[in-house]
């Protein structure tokens, strides 16, 4: 709908930004929301301001990442059936036009980032090394999805640093790890970039925490980031199976090619690590029962994906990959409810004292 309603001259720009395929933006955004909700004070709802700010950042940085990816991969894309009609590959956009668009996207992204505290700005700026390096990973490693996951979930750390005190950054680390593993198992839009992608897509897990907390000194955002990395490894590996035939022909690498027929065993490992990391995140963040109920739903979703996916059916891989946007929403709802039902430590301390004196 976005593409068909836009003027013809604008459509190649929208296409290279993947605005017609919002799934990538959701996968980048959800780890940020998890971190923001985890860093929210007990008994309160997450800040709509931060949710909106990180939403804008997710759209802009996902778009910028796609432009960077297409600039690096133009020659590869010409040889792959699924990507040969991308604007740079088919010639509807020139490299000069793409660079101009990228400049505008990065400049606007910087303006959004500068709305946060300086620690969060530093954390967010550090992600650019992963954003730029992620498309290169497929040329040198079979684990590009790992880098993708590390990048996609970086917002976990940024959001936490913005919202929490400096001594609370460690709390979000399990979530970051879990989301990276999940990302790695599915996202084929970034087919050969799984390792790089895992690191990249999950940067929001760090950014969200740092934005709310002002630092990354708690373990929770770090564990959250690592958990998110496992999530990325899971869904991006699934997605990578769509292009494995073309990838072999053109000589690019991915976890789909590395794992082959053993893919489901690896997916099970990623899913287990992601759930473990998310569970540890909840413990470090003093979460309540709604969080763990959502985690049970997340575990069931992982099990369903791994059990039913047909890695030799591209359409089924796409369906399973796309379903991860709902997993992100379920976990976010669980964190919001769990945080809202939490009692802060000062209130609990007062209750304990009153019980002692009574």
Automatic annotation (TrEMBL):
Catalyzed reactions per annotation: an all-trans-polyprenyl diphosphate + 4-hydroxybenzoate = a 4-hydroxy-3-(all-trans-polyprenyl)benzoate + diphosphate; all-trans-decaprenyl diphosphate + 4-hydroxybenzoate = 4-hydroxy-3-(all-trans-decaprenyl)benzoate + diphosphate; all-trans-nonaprenyl diphosphate + 4-hydroxybenzoate = 4-hydroxy-3-(all-trans-nonaprenyl)benzoate + diphosphate
Predominant location: membrane
Annotated compartments: Membrane; Mitochondrion inner membrane
Keywords: Isoprene biosynthesis, Membrane, Mitochondrion, Mitochondrion inner membrane, Transferase, Transmembrane, Transmembrane helix, Ubiquinone biosynthesis
Regions that span the bilayer: 23-42, 118-137, 146-163, 218-235, 266-285, 325-341
Keyword Mitochondrion on entry: yes
E.C. number(s) listed in UniProt: 2.5.1.39
Known cofactor(s): Mg(2+)
Pathways per UniProt: Cofactor biosynthesis; ubiquinone biosynthesis
Pfam families named among the record's database cross-references: UbiA
InterPro entries on file: HB_polyprenyltransferase-like (IPR006370), Prenyltransferase (IPR039653), UbiA_prenyltransferase (IPR000537), UbiA_prenylTrfase_CS (IPR030470), UbiA_sf (IPR044878)
UniProt membrane topology term: Multi-pass membrane protein
GO biological process: isoprenoid biosynthetic process; ubiquinone biosynthetic process
GO terms under cellular component: mitochondrial inner membrane
CDD domains: PT_UbiA_COQ2
GO molecular function: 4-hydroxybenzoate polyprenyltransferase activity
Role this protein plays: Catalyzes the prenylation of para-hydroxybenzoate (PHB) with an all-trans polyprenyl group. Mediates the second step in the final reaction sequence of coenzyme Q (CoQ) biosynthesis, which is the condensation of the polyisoprenoid side chain with PHB, generating the first membrane-bound Q intermediate.
Similarity comment: family membership: Belongs to the UbiA prenyltransferase family.
Official protein name in the record: 4-hydroxybenzoate polyprenyltransferase, mitochondrial
């Amino acid at each position: 709908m976005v593409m068909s309603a836009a003027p013809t001259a604008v459509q190649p720009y929208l296409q290279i930004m993947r605005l017609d395929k919002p799934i990538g933006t959701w996968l980048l955004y959800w780890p940020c929301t998890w971190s923001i909700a985890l860093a929210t004070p007990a008994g309160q709802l997450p800040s709509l301001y931060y949710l909106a700010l990180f939403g804008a950042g997710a759209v802009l940085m996902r778009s910028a990442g796609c432009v960077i990816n297409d600039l690096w991969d133009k020659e590869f894309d010409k040889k792959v059936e699924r990507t040969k009609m991308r604007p740079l590959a088919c010639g509807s956009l020139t490299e000069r036009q793409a660079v101009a668009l990228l400049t505008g996207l990065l400049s606007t992204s910087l303006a959004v980032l500068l709305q946060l505290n300086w620690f969060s700005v530093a954390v967010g700026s550090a992600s650019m090394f992963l954003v730029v390096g992620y498309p290169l990973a497929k040329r040198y490693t079979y684990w590009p999805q790992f880098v993708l996951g590390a990048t996609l979930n970086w917002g976990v750390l940024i959001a936490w640093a913005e919202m929490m005190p400096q001594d609370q950054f460690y709390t979000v680390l399990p979530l970051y790890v879990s989301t990276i593993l999940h990302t790695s198992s599915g996202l084929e839009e970034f087919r050969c970039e799984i390792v790089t992608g895992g690191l990249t897509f999950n940067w929001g897990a760090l950014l969200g925490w740092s934005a709310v907390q002002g630092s990354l000194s708690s373990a929770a955002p770090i564990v959250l980031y690592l958990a998110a990395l496992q999530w990325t490894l899971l869904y991006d590996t699934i997605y990578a199976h769509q292009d494995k035939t073309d990838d072999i022909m053109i000589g690019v690498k991915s976890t789909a090619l590395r794992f082959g027929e053993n893919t489901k065993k690896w997916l099970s490992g990623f899913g287990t690590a992601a759930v473990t990391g998310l569970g540890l995140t909840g413990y470090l963040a003093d979460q309540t029962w709604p969080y763990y109920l959502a985690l049970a739903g997340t575990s069931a979703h992982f099990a369903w994906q791994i059990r039913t996916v047909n890695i030799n059916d591209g359409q089924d891989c796409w369906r399973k990959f796309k379903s991860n946007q709902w997993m992100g929403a379920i976990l976010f709802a669980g964190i919001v409810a769990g945080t809202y039902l939490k009692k802060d430590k000062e209130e609990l301390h007062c209750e304990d004292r009153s019980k002692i004196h009574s």
